[in-house]
Design a protein that fits this description.
mainly alpha; two-stranded parallel sheet; 2 strands; 5 helices
């Protein structure tokens, strides 16, 4: 008996079903607080996130997201 065809939710879900790990190359406090990361996990099959010191420094300097933590 053949396996049923599973239609991917999106092209990224299709990649994930094929064994590709879908990662986001950015992360921010706003992305976490707003639910954007959760949306990407659900809608875009994101399974991980990455950043680097330059990106993280840009997030700190380029927004007010971390102001209260920095003042503390």
């Amino acid at each position: 008996m053949p396996y049923p065809l599973v239609v991917p939710k999106s092209n990224l879900h299709g990649l994930a079903q094929s064994g590709v790990s879908v990662w986001s190359d950015q992360i921010s406090k706003t992305m976490l607080d707003s639910g954007e990361l959760a949306r990407r996990i659900e809608d875009d099959a994101v399974t991980g996130v990455t950043s680097n010191p330059t990106i993280f420094a840009g997030a700190i300097v380029g927004s007010d997201d971390y102001s209260s933590q920095l003042q503390d």
